[in-house]
Amino acid sequence: MSELKEKFIVTGMTCSACQNAVEKSVGSVKGVESVSVNLLTGDMLVEGQGDLRQEVVRAVQAAGYGVKDPAGQGTPAKEDPAEDLKTFFLSSLIFLIPLFYIAMGPMMGLPTFSFFQGMQNSLILALSQCLLTLPILILNRRYFISGFKALVHRRPTMDSLVAVGSGAAFLYGLFVIYQLAYGFSYQDMARIDRYHHDLYFESAGMILTLITMGKWLEARAKSKTTGAIDQLMDLTPDLATVRREGVEETIPLDQVRLGDLVLIKPGQSIPVDGVIVKGQTTVDQSSLTGESLPVDKGVQDQVLAATINLESYIEVQVDRVGEETTINKIIALVKDANASKAPIAKLADEISAIFVPAVMAISLLTFFVWIFLGYGLEFALGKMIAVLVISCPCALGLATPVAIMVGTGMGAKKGILFKNAEALEELHKVKGVFLDKTGTITQGQPQVVDWIDYGGLDGEKERIAFLEGQSEHPLAKALVDYLPEVQGEKEDFDFQNILGQGLVGDFASGRLLLGDKKLMDAFSIEVQDLKDLEGLSREGKTLLYVAKEGKFLGAVALADQIKEGSKEAIDQLRARGLKTVMLTGDHALTAQAIAKDLALDEIVAGIFPDQKEGQVRQGQKLGKVAMVGDGINDAPALARAEVGVAIGAGTDIAIDSADVVLMHSDLGDFVYAWDLSAATVKNIKENLFWAFFYNVIGIPIAAGVFYRAFSLSLSPMIAAFAMSMSSLFVVTNALRLNAFKAKTLPVDQESRPASLVQEGHDEKIEKIEKIEKIERKDSMNQIVLKVEGMACGHCKKRVEEALGALEGVKGEVSLEEKQVTISYPDEVSVKDLKDAIQEAGYEVVS
């Protein structure tokens, strides 16, 4: 029997209940071993034994959804996007307003038309209400289709509650119309008097219209979450320029092969993962690593697809293509994380699985008991309908969506966008928060923090501004922003950019140097107080040295700064018992310097996107977690966390991958969102309690349990009024959330996490590296070498031992790919690595 592992496209899903229904329906097909549905993309992965395609398609269609198999076969259902639901809601409202007016107006003292007044016009009133209700039922027929299908499959949902409740109210209205018609036909005025008030069409119309409004609001938020994967794919260019056999040609990216030579000009996005074989440049790889500064790259350095070549022409030899590139692995992680999220169980849906069958059983039992007691068909039917009407799940159906609507509205006023109800429900349950550093805790841009003048530096401010104005480097921009605006005419000078070292400007007054220590050494400039200045580097600051005509003038220190409010926000998270972990692609020293004043529980530095996602996955073993980030590199972690939170000033992809967006880019808003989530869920539980408390009391009375002993009973009309009062209470209770305000909890400053306590700013680097939870991974270089001749485990061991003999070098051999991944310190050259491998008896080919 052949093994099936196929992807299908499912359409028509709008919530996690839909996802559950599809998975359960397909999972029940004989031969299916596993099924995973991605709600955002509509992808469904099915694994099993045998050719099950047709059975899978039928199972999805039986659940009420459309589906296409890999061959495009199937009958996809039309989805209900936000615009369609908005149309259904507004159209329903057009009929509900006059329906509600003519049904409830007299009870509220409102003027009504004369032809609706009195018993003699009761049939006209009934027929008018029926005709106004019918379009609402037709517009919202999806609830009846999916609700009754769910009942047939013994998996009732909220749609089942809506269908049963509104259907019972409408059917009872039809029953009353026939009673009135019979009374007028046979002049039975007693019958007319008895039934002319028993019309409940407005109940059916109100239930359907309000539920559709809630669905529309939810769909409107959810419709913005589906573009993340497409935007990730757009980061990599569609074309690449390659040189094959001396001929340059531009080809589609999917035609690029391993070993090809790709030519990349300044300003272009790098299309492949590979190693530079010609040229030197600076690469902006913030999209993948989150590093706030561009990175200098030269021959034998690794570059990644979807990063940007900033400065110079380079040639790159391809070592990974297709699904193996880093960006495609990120895309796969986002898809996997979204697909593997456990659907959030709706409390009302869970209850409905018991409530709906129980109510139907009670109504049928009521009917047969009164028939058995000899009270006649009409009396028994009235009691059965009263049970169904009073059990109409309007309050139950409104308990969650109305509170969610008010909660999300309060969030929006504060600049906090909850993109789905699940996020608002789940946020307060998280026990840990993973925080990206750059752009989330910090400003995300370097700023001048120290201006150190050893004599003459202040006098060169204008020339430094001229010089830095020639560069697009972020450090140059920070300096230009810091320096005062240049007055007078611009001075002519010759400009030279020495890659990886700094800038040289030949002015009429002399040669001005601005760069790192290597630039000073190249021009034999002696730097004063070097030890003290390098102490600033250990604080995570970037140093630029300035010299003129052979004389050292001073230094400028730049650093990314903590956002205003970040410290207070982290303190408040700690006061709420949440564990805080900072994740960053930056160097451990930079991370430690940024975090020295923050009450963080852990710091993990020098990590790549898949490692961020892995950290989140590891944290989930201890409970639910949230991830807060702003970059493309945060997308997999945002998708993996139970609640992903994007800083609004970040990238579109981070925002699309998240469940919550903080539009003001203020970490303090996360604290507000956490409190709002807790308050909203508390409100929902209060609403659900009232909805069921009302049913616990109302159903026995409607069924006539107390009728014989106390003559206490409920007509369907009183039952409908009670149901309306229940709904009014739920809505009123939910509106209390409009008065919500976040609390500022007291913070115990003495209980800061011990793992981050520093003893002073002059500590040795070695001491900082020992601080608990700091991982210094970017202090080593990495290279991948293609090696011929390796064929077995002995070869693998021989190569790894040869490399291990070099101090600080570690090599990992892949026999399948015939390559060695090597980590090595600056003291060891690439030539040393090649020589060690070749001395072991193997050939390094690239």
Verbal overview:
This protein is elongated. 45% of the residues are buried. By secondary structure, the chain is an alpha+beta fold. It has a seven-stranded mixed β-sheet with strand order 14-26-25-24-15-22-23, sandwiched between helices. The protein has a six-stranded antiparallel β-sheet with strand order 6-5-7-13-8-11, with no helix packed on it. A hairpin with a 4-residue loop joins strand 28 and strand 29. The longest helix is centred in the last third of the chain and has 36 residues. It is built from 31 helices and 30 strands.
Helix/strand layout:
Blueprint: E1 3-11, H1 16-27, E2 32-37, E3 43-49, H2 53-62, E4 66-68, H3 82-104, H4 122-139, H5 141-152, H6 158-185, H7 189-195, H8 201-222, H9 228-234, E5 239-244, E6 247-252, E7 261-264, E8 273-278, E9 281-284, H10 286-289, E10 295-297, E11 302-303, E12 308-309, E13 314-320, H11 326-340, H12 347-372, H13 376-390, H14 394-413, E14 416-418, H15 421-426, E15 432-436, H16 437-441, E16 442-453, H17 461-468, H18 474-482, E17 494-498, E18 502-507, E19 510-515, H19 517-522, H20 530-537, E20 542-548, E21 551-562, H21 566-575, E22 579-583, H22 588-595, E23 602-604, H23 609-619, E24 625-629, H24 635-640, E25 643-647, H25 652-657, E26 660-662, H26 668-703, H27 707-710, H28 716-735, H29 765-769, E27 781-788, H30 793-804, E28 810-814, E29 819-824, H31 830-839, E30 843-844
Parallel strand pairs: 15-22, 15-24, 22-23, 24-25, 25-26
Antiparallel strand pairs: 1-3, 1-4, 2-3, 5-6, 5-7, 7-13, 8-11, 8-13, 9-10, 9-12, 14-26, 16-21, 17-18, 18-19, 19-20, 20-21, 27-29, 27-30, 28-29
Helix pairs in contact: 3-4, 3-8, 4-6, 4-8, 5-6, 6-7, 6-8, 6-12, 8-14, 12-13, 13-26, 13-28, 14-26, 14-28, 17-18, 21-26, 26-28
